[in-house]
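YM 10:42: O-antigen ligase-related domain-containing protein sequence, as discussed on the call
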Amino acid sequence: MPQSSTLKIDRIENYLYTLLMVAFTMPLLPNFARNILLGLITATTLFLFFKQPERSIKDYRMMIAGSALYILYAVSLSYTENMEIGLRKMETGLSLLIIPIFSGLLPIAVIEKIKRNFSQFLWVYIVSVTLTLIIFWCIFIEHYGMSLFQHFPTVINKDLGPYNLHPIYLAMHGAVAILFSFYLLSKLKKKWAFAVLIFMSIIIACFMLIVIKKGPIISLVITALYLVFAYKNKSAIIALTSICGLFICVIIFQPKVNRKFSELLNISGQTSGEQMSSTNIRVAIFDCVNDIAPEAGLFGYGVGDAKDELLKCYNEKNPTLAKYKYNTHNQFMSIFLRVGAIGAITFIVLMLFILYRLRKREAHLAIAVVSFYLLIMFSENILERENGVLYFAFFTFVFYQVFKGKNKKSISITPIDVTAAISKSDAQFS
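YM 10:58: structure's back
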């Protein structure tokens, strides 16, 4: 190939690298901008692949396995009666198809550059999440003279236009940012960098307590414990202790937060009517799921009909659930109802395979992030909203491709200087 063509390809690969860096600012971007960004990344990757396929990683196995759930959803449209809902769900879940494909075709040079500058990506995401929270807070203070704990979650969910974000996803973004912080804390030597990361992590933790979402907090503590002790780093342990101490103090001494977490210990209360706790709502939902699950069988009710079947059960057993149209509040159950045992087993096997491969490479950060999302799936349907499925797919499949090429001998856990992390190159990660 002529040298001019090679230089052109190099420039396009640098452009793709920049787009992937920008993707770590997604919490700051409005909903439509994230979709445009994802489209640009996919189009650029495909262009590079068709132009010079020998420069791409060509992980066809993960491309097929990663998009298998979406393909099964598409097949289920053939026996779905509610086609309107089915097509809407397919549109929402498009990231489950696009991201495994483009991540499996990324240029080798781009992957290697991400590896060399990995900490920069994490810094970008942490700062983006922190700025997002501060911006939301400033908007709230300027326009609403109401109780913070009572109304802030509603405002960010309803009154921010293209920036509307359900509190559960705000908490999830914050939790992932804190996991990234623990990774960086295990690497950095500068005291000022340690202080900055701790400060941003505390800000994020405070907002997680403001929106009072139990699932992300509990999942964060579990995965952070794994990450911190995997690296056995004193700074990260101090950070985890500080954040856990903050969580415990607020849970004990703030009445509303205390009530929310106390629900976890009381599942024998009211299971019908308007005053059900979130825990008892889930108990009632799971009761209906258990009733209709046997008929889902191997293939499920279809991506468009699963919710309708659930609503029929609600109307018969608990009209309050039907009134608010609750989903299963468990992603694994939702997949089973949509595409049956075949779909659920496919998804679970895929996740176990990814975790197994990451464990062989001692990719502890990737394991923690993927495990965090999987733990959330036991209490939320995060793959059924764009703010959930996009981030899950992006971090799972991009991190898989970035980490999978490392072998144990090439992994280094030597602390690095933050100046190097933010400028040119990072130490190799484990």
